[in-house]
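Mods, move this if it's the wrong board.
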Amino acid sequence: MPFDAAPHSVKTDCLICPVQTCLARRGDADQASAFGDMLAPRLAVMPGQGALYHSGDRLRSIYSVRGGCIKASTVDSEGNEHIRGFYLAGDLVGLDALGGGVCLSTAAAVVPSQVCVAPLADLRQLMLRRPELAQRVMEQTSRELALSLALSGDYSAEQRMAAFLLYMRDRTAASSVIRLPMAQRDIGNYLRLATETVCRSLKSLQRRGIVSLSERAVSLVDEPALRALAEPVGLNQVSYPLPLAA
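Not the wrong board. Structure tokens:
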């Protein structure tokens, strides 16, 4: 069912959910059942139609992305948006607010999306009962930190683009064609590049025979060359585990 046609509130059964890399599925069947029992009904979220939470809100739930793409962003005093991250299927949204309990950004859909809702108080109780669940929350927190540090270095525009394309390929389980849910403007904002620089970098990679471009899709033509270009950024060290459950 398309996300824009899906009911806004549906209970999730983690044991039959197609997302194999979410927190519930990176463990055994008992963990998946316990996680599913704790969840509130999942939500359909649409671009431009509200947010999961806003910067400054009290954190009440953690959200697991079931499909689509969620972006976290802030707006400065001059009205400029700053994208802090993109969240894809299997990711948890809101972990950066766990410590202080106040949301540090606004989380909204990039494309029609669905999220599963884990009430914070219930999630904390479940993590106390199942320490392996807490361990996996820590693992994603560590990956988010590693990703942020990897992209904060002084790299060229082409190195950043190459690393981002490979990251998106790995996250979307694509073969050689990466379909990007976000616009070049958002990619540039996230990578701290001008939109024009993103466009020039992609066209340069295409001229060099490394990629082929189409509407919001990038085909990898010479992956070894792309990996060599991206290697200094270090995103290849940010791993996303496969589920352990059968």
